[in-house]
Amino acid sequence: VPLPELLTARALFTDVLDIAGWPKRRFYEMLKLSATDPTEKAELERLCSKEGKKDYQAYASESYTYAELLEKFPSAKPNIGHLLDYVPDIKPRLYSIASSSRMRGNDECHLCIIKNEWDATSGRNCVGLSTGWLDELEVPSEGIKMRGHIHPSAVTMPETHATPMLMVALGTGIAPMRAFIEERAAAKRDGEECAEMALFFGARNRQEYSYEAEFDAYQKEGVLEHIHLALSREQKEK
Ligand SMILES: Cc1cc2nc3c(=O)[nH]c(=O)nc-3n(C[C@H](O)[C@H](O)[C@H](O)COP(=O)(O)OP(=O)(O)OC[C@H]3O[C@@H](n4cnc5c(N)ncnc54)[C@H](O)[C@@H]3O)c2cc1C
User: Fold this and answer.
1) 165-231 CATH, one of 3.30.360.10, 3.40.30.10, 3.40.50.80, 3.30.70.100
2) Who contacts 200 (Cβ-Cβ below 8 Å, separation ≥6)?
3) How far apart are the CA of 116 and the centre of ligand 1, in A?
4) Which residues does the UniProt record annotate as the domain Sulfite reductase [NADPH] flavoprotein alpha-component-like FAD-binding (predicted)?
C-alpha cells in the first residue's frame, strides 16, 4: 500500500511499520553500521559474524522486536529513511469467518481467534501483535468500526446439502467448519434435505473446544451426527 503524502511520525510507527515484528539479520547489519558507541558496535559486529552465530540465534529466540533492538542499542540512530527500508510494513492478519449469513443475517459475522502467546528463552511471555491488540481492546457498548477485506474462501461447501460432509480441523481451523455447520443447520430448519455431517477436531485441551455446547446441541438436533475429539494434552495416546 503506498504511503499517504502526509503522515505523522506517530502514525508511521503505530499504523505502518511493523516495529513490533521479528527483525531480520539485515536489520542487525544496518544497526551495526549506524551504532556509534564502541561497545554496542562491537556487540553488533559479533552478532553479525560467523563466530557470533550462536549469540545471534539466542537473540532471535529471545523474540526481540525491532523496537526492542533500537532500545538495546541506543547509539544506533537510523534515520526514518533507513527505518522505512529495513522495517517491513505491518501485514494484514487473515481470519476465517466462523458463522453463516443464512443463519445470522448479513449484519453479523463471527470470528474464532486464539491469542498467540509463547515464551522466549528467558521465560518472558510474548504475545502476537494482532491477537494481543484484540485481547486488550476495550469495546464500548456501541461497538467499534474496523476495516477489513473479505477474500473468497479456499474451503467451500458441497453444491447441495444432500452431500455428506466429513470435516477435519485443528485449533482455530474449526472456524470455517462452524460456518458450514450453521449453514447446514439453517438449511435443515428450512426443510431442505440434508445429508450427514461428521467432525474430527484436534486441540490441546477441552478449553480450546469453545463450541462444545453448541455442537452438542447440533448433534441432538441431527445436524452434526458425528463428533470425534483428539485432545493432545488430556489423553495419553497421541
Ligand atoms: C488463511 C488463514 C486463515 C486464518 N484463520 C485464523 C482463524 O480463524 N483464527 C485464528 O486465530 N487465526 C487464524 N489465522 C492465523 C492469523 O492470521 C494470525 O497469524 C494469528 O492470529 C497470529 O497473529 P498475531 O499478530 O497475534 O501474531 P504475530 O505477531 O504475527 O506472531 C505470529 C508468530 O510469529 C512468531 N513471532 C512474532 N514475533 C516474533 C519475534 N519478535 N521473535 C520471534 N518470533 C516471533 C511467533 O512464533 C508467533 O507465534 C489464519 C491464517 C491464515 C493464513
Assistant:
1) 3.40.50.80
2) 166, 167, 168, 169, 228, 230
3) 6
4) 2-133
